[in-house]
């Protein structure tokens, strides 16, 4: 139940539940399209209505010119920040996802992996995923594997 006066802790609990539910039961979708409601900043911000809208931008502390999202309320930005810090969820680079749902931020797009510091703000498109990291080596900022888990290997003489 979404009210317009949720405490930060209530928003955090709701975000985690939404993200875990979404990946456990992604909505049906046509081939080649992402299922609706994928947990992006935009979709989650929309979920909280007016209480999610404000003046706060979230950016990478390692790369202050790289913006994850902007126009957030203080309480929603605080909730995202707490969840990312605790490792309850992580952001994961998601090329093109915003062109299908709701549109991108009106900023030039940052390249992945993030290595550049830009002279003006650039936007890094991401989705949220459960936990501190996942096993997808492309786009996961906290990936710890070798990158070879999905490869088929054939030994030849
Ligand atoms: Zn990931």
Bound molecules: zinc ion
Coarse structural class = alpha+beta
**DSSP strand tally:** 5
Task: Pick out the low-confidence regions.
Answer: none
Distance between the termini: 62 Å
SSE inventory with pairings:
Elements (H helix, E strand, L loop, with lengths): L7 H17 L16 H7 L5 E8 L2 E10 L1 H13 L2 E5 L3 H4 L21 E2 L2 E5 L27
Parallel strand pairs: 2-4
Antiparallel strand pairs: 1-2, 3-5
The protein binds zinc ion.
How is this structure best described in words?
The protein has helices spanning 8-24, 41-47, 74-86, 97-100; strands spanning 53-60, 63-72, 89-93, 122-123, 126-130. α1 (8-24) packs across α3. The protein has one domain (8-130). The strands form two sheets. A three-stranded mixed beta sheet has the order 1-2-4. A two-stranded antiparallel sheet has the order 3-5. The protein has 157 residues and is of the alpha+beta class. It starts with 7 loop residues before the first helix and ends in a 27-residue tail after the last strand. It contains four helices and five strands, in the order ααββαβαββ. Bound molecules: zinc ion. The site of zinc ion has 7 residues, from β3. Zinc ion is lined by residues 90, 92, 129, 133-134, 136, 140.
């Amino acid at each position: 139940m979404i009210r317009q006066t949720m405490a930060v802790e209530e928003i955090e609990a709701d975000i985690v539940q939404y993200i875990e539910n979404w990946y456990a039961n992604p909505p049906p979708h046509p081939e080649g399209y992402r299922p609706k409601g994928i947990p992006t900043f935009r979709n989650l911000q929309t979920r909280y209505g007016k209480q999610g809208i404000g003046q706060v931008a979230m950016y990478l502390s390692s790369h202050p010119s790289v913006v994850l999202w902007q126009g957030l309320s203080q309480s929603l930005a605080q909730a995202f920040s707490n969840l990312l810090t605790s490792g309850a969820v992580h952001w994961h680079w998601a090329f093109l996802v915003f062109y299908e749902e709701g549109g991108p931020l009106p900023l030039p797009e940052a390249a992945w992996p993030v290595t550049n510091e830009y002279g003006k703000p650039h936007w890094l498109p991401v989705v949220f995923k459960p936990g501190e990291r996942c096993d997808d080596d492309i786009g996961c900022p906290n990936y710890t594997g070798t990158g070879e888990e999905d490869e088929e290997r054939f030994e030849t003489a």
